[in-house]
Design a protein that fits this description.
With 283 residues, the protein is an alpha/beta fold. Helices cover 51% and strands 11% of the residues.
């Protein structure tokens, strides 16, 4: 297969999982290469996402690595054979690659959990709110790039507003609900939008109030995207160097635990709706 100049995060994830299987089997790249009749350079390219891999070769490698998890192997085959060019491709070359990777992750997610402490989750944001958040960065974005980013953020909502919405749980701290990104009227409109989303059957909104005793989870902000199988879940977090995609099994387990703790600390969905409604009426 031809090499790729810039593999997507999903393509790199496939390569990472194949390398993990090989490492777990205690095999060298040269041994995997000999099995396929290719060079170790090509194995390296497959494991870095630079080169694709056919279903036949992937299943051969999985069998050689003694992987018996059929659901996992099938999910990897789907990742290897899927040629989807989604709506986000119109932004390639116009926005940072991480924006496109996030949209691709959304598209293939089976469910999503968000925990947010300072801002309304992106999937709930109004255009005005998103413009305020995205326009705050330093150095300031040119108007045309700012509008591209706002439009891209609005299109990402397809996973909860489109024809095939996925289950979505958003745990939002009271701070994020109270911080006014824009005017009082804009904040009221934003809260009304969150309430509207909370009425959907596939969406759950939970609020963590300020007056919760012994709360120490303010560092638990996350976007958690479910994969075809739990091993292919992904956590997304903002990092000093940009967007970080976390996918090791140990770390995924840690974030699942953190998310459950945030759920346990929050108000139930009905109480949360009442809470947000009261805040909106105070404005």
């Amino acid at each position: 297969m031809p090499t790729r100049r810039e593999p997507t995060a999903r393509q790199m994830r496939l390569g990472i999982e194949l390398r993990r299987l090989r490492d777990a089997a205690g095999l060298k790249a040269t041994e995997a290469a000999a099995l396929l009749g290719v060079s170790s350079v090509q194995i390296s390219q497959i494991e870095s996402g630079i080169s694709g891999v056919s279903e036949k070769r992937l299943r051969l490698l999985a069998a050689h690595y003694a992987c018996t998890d059929d659901a996992f192997i099938d999910a990897l085959v789907t990742m290897a054979s899927d040629r989807t060019r989604g709506w986000w491709e119109e932004y390639r070359g116009l926005l940072p690659t991480s924006f496109l990777d996030l949209s691709e992750l959304d598209h293939f997610a089976t469910h999503r959990w968000d925990v947010s402490f300072l801002h309304i989750p992106g999937l709930f944001q109004t255009e005005q709110y998103a413009r305020g958040i995205l326009g705050h960065r330093v150095p300031e974005l040119p108007d045309d790039e700012l509008e591209l980013r706002v439009r891209h953020r609005m299109q990402r909502k397809v996973i909860i507003e489109g024809p095939a919405p996925i289950p979505y749980v958003a745990v939002i701290h009271e701070a994020a609900l109270r911080i006014r990104v824009g005017t009082r009227a804009a904040t009221r409109t934003q809260l009304a939008r969150v309430l509207e989303f909370s009425e959907a059957d596939h969406i759950t909104v939970r609020v963590i109030p300020f007056d919760l005793d012994e709360f120490t989870g303010a560092d638990s902000t996350m976007v958690y995207a479910g994969g075809a199988v739990p091993k292919l879940d992904t956590v997304v977090r903002d990092a000093p160097h940009g967007t970080a995609f976390i996918d090791s099994e140990a770390q995924l387990g840690r974030f699942r635990t953190l998310f459950r703790r945030m759920e346990d600390a929050s108000l139930d969905p009905e109480q949360s709706r009442d809470f947000i409604d009261r805040l909106a009426k105070e404005l």
